[in-house]
Design a protein that fits this description.
Elements lengths: L8 H30 L7 H12 L2 H7 L10 H19 L5 H17 L7 H14 L17 H24 L2 H4 L7 H4 L7 H5 L3 H17 L8 H21 L5 H9 L5 H7 L2 H13 L4 H17 L1 H7 L8 E2 L7 E2 L10 E9 L11 E2 L22 H9 L9 H9 L4 H4 L14 E11 L10 E13 L4 H9 L11
Antiparallel strand pairs: 1-2, 3-4, 3-5, 5-6
């Protein structure tokens, strides 16, 4: 006797609830950090960015076509903050169970607007991934009915598109690793990863000091989840459920072992499409499963939703040519988008693993001269290690965008991150917005006379040593030399990048 066709009422319920939570976190991050990052007095002001884009592309219309964003119309500080909070409120409604196509379309458009003007701060692969996931979700629910279990059946075609998304996410991540750093092939990657990852969490040190055979097993499990499981997300029910379970378990381990923003929570969302209602009825409360069955019995076919779902499949198929070609290219891009709306993208992560951790620490002094006798006080990050005695915090799924950029900056030079000079200028003036990106202000009584940036090497302190510190560090050298507020060199940099108007000539 043939098994009944799978249904996806509870699958849609789970996907939309988790998507609402991820959107809420993403918009909360924007509400709290957007002004010091891209506001009118931010490190990379959005107004200057849009002016450069308009000049480069020839007109506002061309700029909008290339980088669609509502902030082409208006980008005041009030507009930026209001948009972020509006997105947060709508996201909470979706997380609470109330979603329809217009609400999800608005959320997608608002977040697209931030990504396209966010510059360095929004250049991560999960920004594109959230946009692609959010776009698919628009077509998963009815046009108007916002109820958690609406009277329209989830379009199976859109469920398959979510599976296509998780296939590309996982396989892209696996291929970029196996083609890249040899530590993924010899199973030694986790000897370094937990210590050198962007922002470790309280459990990262425990993972780092696991026996080496367990760490090698962890790399093998990574390959199972990223290189093997994706091929089975389109399979029969039991195989598909097993593939989805492997992917969700893998993402859960990553959640436990580090602070990778909302990436892992976001990646779980399309993996949920591997499960149908036969799975959810065993793990969700019985009354919810009963309500889903009743909704299925009372549902009426929605031809417009079916037709729209298959039209979306056709669009995604056409837009998938470049991402698929990149996926199997020997020169695979790690995270890239191929269309202005970020509808179908390519993904990957940690194609190379650092063997040691370096952090750039900003330091200030009240001393009259920045020499060896000066007493330097550090500006503590909210997530990155500074004080070796402090335990790494739990931050994710929240994202500290300055900390992430400084993790990248430590592997490069100031010329690749010129906004760090703008940050120095702001620290020299105790700018409240810039200081709000740090955990504390070491100069509450007035700004320092000099600010510099120093590179340190950090290693996890062995917990068996009994010394009580979480880190061991050593100073490597200056990343930025000391600057004062009177520094002509610093002012020249700021004027060159448009962050300070040159002094007017006297009459």
């Amino acid at each position: 006797m043939a098994s009944p066709a799978p249904t996806y009422w509870l699958t849609r319920f789970a996907i939309l609830r988790l998507l609402g939570l991820v959107y809420a976190v993403a918009f909360l991050v924007a509400a709290n950090q957007i002004l010091p990052l891209i506001g009118s007095n931010g490190l990379l002001p959005v107004g200057a960015f849009l002016a450069r884009a308009r000049e480069t592309l020839g007109s506002t219309e061309a700029g909008f076509a290339r980088l669609p964003s509502i902030f082409w119309l208006w980008h005041s500080d009030g507009m930026l903050v209001a948009t972020a909070w509006a997105g947060f409120v709508l996201s909470c409604a979706v997380a609470a169970g109330y979603a329809n196509a217009p609400v999800l379309a608005v959320l997608w458009a608002l977040y697209l607007s931030f990504v396209h003007v966010g510059q360095d701060w929004y250049g991560y692969g999960w920004e594109y991934q959230l946009l692609e996931t959010g776009f698919l979700a628009i077509f998963l629910c009815p046009l108007l009915d916002p109820r958690p279990l609406p009277g329209r059946e989830p379009p199976v075609a859109v469920i398959w598109l979510f599976r296509w998304l998780i296939f590309r996410i996982m396989l892209g991540a696996g291929l970029i690793k196996i083609r890249g750093d040899p530590c993924w092939r010899d199973l030694s990657a986790l000897f370094y990863y937990f210590e050198t990852q962007p922002i470790p969490n309280p459990l990262s040190r425990w993972f780092h000091f696991l026996p080496r055979w367990e760490l090698e097993t962890g790399v093998a499990f990574n390959h199972l989840a990223e290189l093997v499981a994706p091929w089975f997300v389109f399979g029969p029910r039991k195989i598909r459920h097993a593939a989805g379970a492997v992917i969700v378990l893998f993402q859960s381990v990553l959640i436990l072992s580090g602070n990778l923003s909302f990436l892992n929570w976001l990646t779980i969302i399309p993996a949920l499409a591997c499960f149908d209602d036969s799975f959810w009825s065993r793990v969700l409360p019985g009354r919810l499963s009963h309500a889903a069955r009743n909704a299925g019995l009372a549902a009426t076919p929605s031809r417009p939703m079916i037709v729209t779902g298959w039209a979306l499949c056709a669009l995604v198929a056409v837009l998938s040519f470049k991402p698929v070609a990149n996926l199997f290219s020997p020169h695979q891009l790690m995270n890239a988008s191929f269309d202005p709306l970020e509808l179908v993208n390519t993904y990957g992560a940690f194609g190379s693993i650092g063997r040691e951790r370096t952090n750039v620490i900003f330091e200030g002094t009240d001393s009259a001269a920045p020499d060896e006798s000066a007493v330097w006080r550090p500006y503590p990050y909210r997530g990155l290690p500074v004080d070796p005695s402090l335990r790494p915090p739990q931050v994710a799924p929240y994202q500290l965008r300055l900390d992430w950029q400084m993790w990248f900056a430590a592997m490069s030079s100031p010329s690749d991150y010129p906004w760090t000079l703008h940050l120095v200028w702001k620290l020299l003036h105790n700018d409240p917005g810039a200081l709000g990106l740090f955990a504390a202000n070491p100069f509450p009584g007035g700004p320092p006379r000099f600010v510099r940036a120093v590179t340190y090497r950090y290693r996890f302190a062995d917990p068996r040593s009994g010394k009580g510190s979480w880190w061991v560090r050593e100073r490597l050298g200056l990343w930025l030399p000391p600057f004062s507020a009177e520094s002509g060199e610093l002012k020249g940099y700021l004027e060159a990048y448009g962050w300070m108007k040159p002094p007017s000539n006297p009459p």
